[in-house]
Design a protein that fits this description.
Dihydrodipicolinate Reductase, domain 2, Rossmann fold
Length: 338
């Protein structure tokens, strides 16, 4: 990457925005100039990037003039309003919200899986939901090995998936408990400390939540398997970082445990931790801060033919959001699609 680019981060004060800034520095992304956008209350606040202090700006009509790559992590409403403005100004937008994911002319990309889809972009590339990314990473090598027939996925999602407000809610509730004070939720619908909440996002008329519907639709689009049956349940748990998903995957042709393990080990972005005798399996406390997704508890499902159970954990602020977005931008540059 010899060329350098003018980069913008929209939503720079949020959990994903902050992680994006750290990863841009860690990966030595070719930044010529950096502009940071946040809500009005954060305008003027300064952030240090590679030794330089950069002040937060508010998004306006001329905000994206000269910007070549714009990372959006400020929410769907802001993306719908401002991403087209950035594209008209000449930028390629990597959007981490749900605003454009299911648009037929917008690529929904996990670079290890479907980077080739970037060739059809029209200025906006969508980054999948964090749970979808962590879930689909091991599904792809299984799909290649035996063609998926059915997937059941139950997620155990960290509070940071809800952003800085989710982190703050768990922190204040745990402090209140330690002081012997009443626990009063301020962000989640229910107490999250020492509890699990069996829904994320709003319920639809069919009884499924928005998060569950995203998992179905996005995994299908990424794998180019529009009719793949997927049965999801998404759960919020009192963990700060890293989502965990228990997956049951049925394939058309049998994939043995050993074949699955080898396929996972060979797939970029996956690491196998699977040694039950030594109590070795992925856990959020060990996966937090890591870029890969970790797979363990790989075992045959004895209730039906051609099915496996496994457990996958990924840091949803990194691979589930910020890292995946930066990898998309790196692929755009590598493929001369800027």
């Amino acid at each position: 990457m010899s060329k350098v680019y003018n980069v913008a981060v929209v939503g720079a004060t949020g959990a994903v925005g902050q992680t994006t800034l750290r990863l841009l520095a860690e990966r030595n992304f070719p930044v010529a100039g950096l502009r940071l956008f946040a809500s009005q209350r954060s305008v003027g606040k300064k952030v240090t990037f590679k030794g330089e202090e950069i002040a937060m700006e508010a998004v306006g009509p001329e905000a994206f003039k000269g910007v070549e790559i714009a990372f959006f992590s400020a929410g769907s409403e802001q993306s719908r309003e401002y991403a087209p403005q950035a594209v008209r100004a000449g930028a390629v937008v990597v959007d981490k919200s749900s605003a454009f994911r299911m648009e037929p002319d917008v690529p929904l990309v996990v670079p290890e899986i479907n980077a080739a889809a970037l060739a059809g972009h029209k200025g906006i590339v969508a980054c999948p939901n964090c749970t979808s990314i962590v879930t689909v990473m091991p599904l792809k090598p299984l799909h290649d090995a035996g063609k998926l027939r059915r997937v059941i996925a139950t997620s155990y999602q960290a509070v940071s998936g809800a952003g800085v407000n989710g982190i703050a809610d768990l922190e204040q509730e745990m402090r209140a408990w330690a002081r012997g004070e009443p626990i009063t939720p301020s962000y989640f619908d229910h107490q999250i400390a020492f509890n699990v909440i069996p829904h994320i996002d709003k319920f639809g008329e069919d009884g499924y939540t928005g998060e569950e519907t995203k998992l179905i639709n996005e995994v299908r689009k990424i794998l180019e398997a529009p009719s793949l049956p997927i049965s999801p349940t998404t759960v919020r748990v009192p963990v700060f970082t890293a989502h965990s998903i228990a997956v049951n995957a049925e394939t058309e042709s049998k994939v043995t445990v050993e074949q699955a393990r080898k396929a996972f080990e060979a797939f970029p972005g996956l690491t196998v931790w699977d040694d039950p005798a030594q109590n070795r399996y992925p856990m959020p406390v060990e996966v937090e801060g890591k870029d890969e997704c970790y797979v363990g508890r790989i075992r045959e499902d004895f209730s039906t033919a051609n099915a496996l159970n496994f457990w996958v954990v990924g840091d949803q602020l990194r691979k589930g959001a910020a890292l995946n977005g930066i990898q998309i931008a790196e692929e755009l540059i590598k493929r001369n699609l800027m």
